[in-house]
Amino acid sequence: xxxxxxxxxxxxxxxxxxxxxxxxxxxxxxxxxxxxxxxxxxxxxxxxxxxxxxxxxxxxxxxxxxxxxxxxxxxxxxxxxxxxxxxxxxxxxxxxxxxxxxxxxxxxxxxxxxxxxxxxxxxxxxxxxxxxxxxxxxxxxxxxxxxxxxxxxxxxxxxxxxxxxxxxxxxxxxxxxxxxxxxxxxxxxxxxxxxxxxxxxxxxxxxxxxxxxxxxxxxxxxxxxxx
Length: 227
Fold this sequence. Notes:
The chain has helices at residues 2-30, 136-139, 153-163, 179-196, 208-219; strands at residues 50-54, 57-64, 67-68, 74-75, 78-85, 89-98, 107-114, 119-127, 145-152, 167-172. It has 227 residues and is α+β, with helices and mostly antiparallel strands. Strand 1 (50-54) and strand 2 form a beta hairpin. The protein is globular.
């Protein structure tokens, strides 16, 4: 019995030590980090979108418009100015990108389809520097900045279906009257805030999906549960 108690005490002491080391590393090495706006970013997240809002009219600058044959073979372009009218939203689409054989692992983003045929996608992502590859574990430790990609649907969807060969599913969102406009404006204001002050990406708190949930609940509190 005494031997088992000693083993249990060692296990508890070891766990406390590990937790203490993690807290120490967080306080000394991780917490002081400041998210950057200017860095040697990958070309697919090199530019930051900004927007001017005048009533229902929104003018975006730096809209990504890549054409993807593969992830390495692509034509890169950024639209200088794209103007949309928030009163002319035809549909809002919730897109699920299954990038792994486990269907529980997926990337999600939103597409706004306008009456004039324009389709703009908003995708919360980890902003990567040249040479960086995404992995969830570093995302817990302030390794990536939060990036809200705004691009034409043919780019954002094409990257996944053409470039990566993933299976994507599009679901038409059913929104209360006026909420689709409020969601677009909320996302646009988020774009402008991120252009002025960087934020950290977090692999649990600010992922593609939890960020969308946060935006939806911002305009309709409690509409979507986080779990």
